[in-house]
Structures are given as C-alpha cells and as structure tokens.
C-alpha cells in the first residue's frame, strides 16, 4: 500500500516550504510514500486556483484529486475547499504552514504509519 499526499507549496519539491494558503498556493507537491515510510515518488503540479478569479479552493481541490492524492497536509482550507476535499474523498491529516515539505512529510508519516 502507498499513501499519496498533497502539500501546497510556493515552487514545489521536497526542499520547498508549505504555503500559507490552500486555494491560492502556486503549486502542489505530490508525495507518494510506501508502508515502510520511504518516499516512492515526488511530482509538482501547478494549481489552477492560484490565479483564479473565484472558486480557487474548489479548483485546487480538483487539481489535488486529479494528481491522485488521497491525503492533504497544509493550511486549513476554506469552507468550500474543505467540502470539495471531503466530496473527493481526500482526507486532511494535518494543518501545517511555513515548515519544510520534508517536515510535513514526517508529520504525515507519524499519522499514516502510526510511528
């Protein structure tokens, strides 16, 4: 089993920091981790909500789902984005902001792998 996690980021990648906003984050770093806690893959996707006039959170939630993520860690999404994430079956496993993506992944591992 693997876990696919979406993390909102400014530029993307493991060396970035968690963005302060969900719907308007420029990118999402999508990280797949295995049951052993090892990172299996990392990809960066652009967030269509970043420059959206309205509905940024819902567009961001759809982008996360389209990227295959089943889990989200980052800032608390707004009410519409939260509802969209729930509707799409994406679980929120933490609300972190301003920490490194690597730190966010460690937090996610503790929650998902019970370590």
Characterization of the model:
The protein is of the alpha/beta class. It has a single domain, classed as Dinitrogenase iron-molybdenum cofactor biosynthesis domain (Nucleotidyltransferase, domain 5), CATH 3.30.420. A five-stranded mixed beta sheet has the order 3-2-1-4-5, covered by helices on one side. α1 runs parallel beside α2. The longest helix is centred in the last third of the chain and has 13 residues. The radius of gyration is 13 Å and the shape is globular. The two termini are about 15 Å apart. About 35% of the residues are buried.
Structural class: alpha/beta
Q: Tell me what portion of residues adopts beta-strand conformation.
A: 25-35%
Span of the ends, CA to CA: 16 Å
Strand order of the largest sheet: 3-2-1-4-5
Radius of gyration: 13 Å
Based on Cα principal axes, name the global outline.
globular
Q: In DSSP terms, counting alpha (H) and pi (I) runs of 4 or more, how many helices? A: 3
Per CATH, the class reads Alpha Beta
Low-confidence stretches: none
| CATH architecture group name | 2-Layer Sandwich
Give me the secondary-structure topology.
Blueprint: E1 2-9, E2 27-34, E3 39-46, H1 56-66, E4 71-73, H2 79-87, E5 91-94, H3 101-113
Parallel strand pairs: 1-4, 4-5
Antiparallel strand pairs: 1-2, 2-3
Which short descriptors sum up this protein?
115 residues; alpha/beta; Nucleotidyltransferase, domain 5; 5-stranded mixed sheet; globular
Quick gist of this model?
Helix content is 29%, strand content 27%.
């Amino acid at each position: 089993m693997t876990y696919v996690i979406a993390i909102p980021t400014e530029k993307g990648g493991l060396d970035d920091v968690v963005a302060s906003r969900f719907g308007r984050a420029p990118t999402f770093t999508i990280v797949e981790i295995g049951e052993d806690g090892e990172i299996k893959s990392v990809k960066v996707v652009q967030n269509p909500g970043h420059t959206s006039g309205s509905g940024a959170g819902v567009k961001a939630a759809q982008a996360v789902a389209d990227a295959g993520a089943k889990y989200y860690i980052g800032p608390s999404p707004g009410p519409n984005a939260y509802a969209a994430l729930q509707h799409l079956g994406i679980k929120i496993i933490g609300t972190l902001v301003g920490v490194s993506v690597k730190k966010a992944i460690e937090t996610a591992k503790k929650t998902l792998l019970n370590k």
